[in-house]
Design goal:
CATH architecture of the largest domain: 3-Layer(aba) Sandwich
Number of domains: 2
Number of helices: 10
CATH superfamily of the largest domain: HUPs
Helix content: 25-40%
Largest sheet: 6 strands, parallel
CATH class of the largest domain: Alpha Beta
Number of strands: 9
Radius of gyration: 19 Å
C-alpha cells in the first residue's frame, strides 16, 4: 500500500512541517485544488514529484469564487476518496483548511486582480477572479512553496494568478501544466460528473470545434467569421448558451483579430446545466 499523505487541518502544524522540509533544503511544490480529484489533478502531482522533493496538495472548495447562483453547494466533495488518490499519486501532504480557517470572523480583505481578469470568465462570473486571487494568495502564504502548479484548462485563471504573484512580489514560481484529456478530447474536469450520458456523448464537440477553428487561424484566416461559425456549430450540437468563444493573446489575454502572435482560443459554454470551459494554443500563421 502507498504511504498516506500527511493530513493537515490546522495551519500551525502545516507550517512547522513545511519549515522542516525547507530547512533540510527540500524543494516544495504546491498543487491547489478544490477536491473531487481526477487524473488531471494527479498529473499535476506527478509533475510536482518530478520537479520537487515535497508535494503539498490543498483541498478547499472556496466559497468566495462562486456566484450566488453557481454550484458551490453541490460541488462534488469526497475527502476520503481524494486522500486515497493522493496516496496512490505519491503526494507528501494534504492541506485541508476549513472555511473558518481561511475566512475567520472579521476577515475583510480581498485582492482585485488586474487586466488579465477582464472579459471571458471575468465578465460572466463577476467577482470570481477576486475570490480566486484571494484564496490562492492565502495558500501561497500558508505553504510558502518554491513552485505552484495549475492546469492550463483554466487558462485565464493561470494568467490572473501569474499577474498577482508578479505584482505582489510573492516568492513562488507559477507554472502551467498542459490539459489532460479523455481519449475523445474532452478536457478532464470535476464538473464532468454532472453530465448525463447523452450530454457526455456530445461534450467532445467542444474541443473538436476549437481544434477546427485553430487550424483555420493557423493558416492566417481572420478570427471573426471562424468564431461565428464555431458558435453556430456548438449551438447545433446542443450547447447553449455559449458564453464566449474568443481569440486572445496568450500572454496578456488582449483580444486578437488574427493569430499574428502566440494566442489562445478560449470557450465557455453550457451543455444542459453543466458549464464547460476549454482552450487550445494557436501558433502564429
Amino acid at each position: 500500500m502507498p504511504d498516506t499523505p500527511l493530513r493537515f487541518d490546522d495551519l500551525d502544524s502545516l507550517r512547522r512541517t513545511v519549515a522542516a522540509w525547507r530547512g533540510a533544503g527540500e524543494r516544495i511544490v504546491l498543487v491547489p485544488t478544490m477536491g473531487a480529484l481526477h487524473a488531471g489533478h494527479l498529473a499535476l502531482v506527478a509533475h510536482g514529484r518530478a520537479i520537487g522533493r515535497r508535494v503539498v496538495v490543498s483541498i478547499f472548495v472556496n466559497p468566495t469564487q462562486f456566484g450566488p447562483t453557481e454550484d458551490f453547494s453541490r460541488y462534488p466533495r469526497d475527502t476520503e476518496a481524494d486522500l486515497a488518490r493522493l496516496a496512490e499519486a505519491g503526494a507528501d501532504a494534504a492541506w485541508l483548511p476549513s472555511v473558518a480557517t481561511m475566512y475567520p470572523d472579521g476577515f475583510a480583505t480581498r485582492i482585485e486582480p488586474g487586466p488579465a481578469a477582464g472579459g471571458l470568465c471575468g465578465d460572466v462570473r463577476p467577482g470570481h477572479f477576486s475570490g480566486v486571487a484571494t484564496v490562492v494568495t492565502k495558500l501561497l502564504n500558508q505553504v510558502g512553496p518554491d513552485i505552484a502548479l495549475f492546469g492550463e484548462k483554466d487558462f485565464q485563471q493561470l494568467q490572473v494568478i501569474r499577474s498577482v504573484v508578479r505584482d505582489l512580489d510573492i516568492p513562488a514560481e507559477i507554472a502551467g501544466v498542459p490539459t489532460l484529456r479523455e481519449p475523445d478530447g474532452l478536457a478532464l474536469s470535476s464538473r464532468n460528473r454532472y453530465l448525463t450520458p447523452d450530454e457526455r456523448a456530445r461534450a467532445p464537440r467542444l474541443h473538436a470545434t476549437l481544434a477546427e477553428i485553430a487550424e483555420g487561424l493557423a493558416r492566417g484566416a481572420a478570427a471573426h467569421p471562424l468564431l461565428a461559425e464555431g458558435i453556430a456549430a456548438l449551438e447545433a450540437a446542443g450547447f447553449g448558451p455559449v458564453q464566449y468563444l474568443e481569440l486572445r493573446d496568450a500572454r496578456t489575454l488582449a483580444p486578437l483579430a488574427r493569430a499574428e502572435r502566440e494566442a489562445r482560443l478560449l470557450v465557455a459554454a453550457y451543455l444542459g446545466k453543466t458549464r464547460l470551459i476549454d482552450n487550445v494554443a494557436v501558433l502564429p500563421a
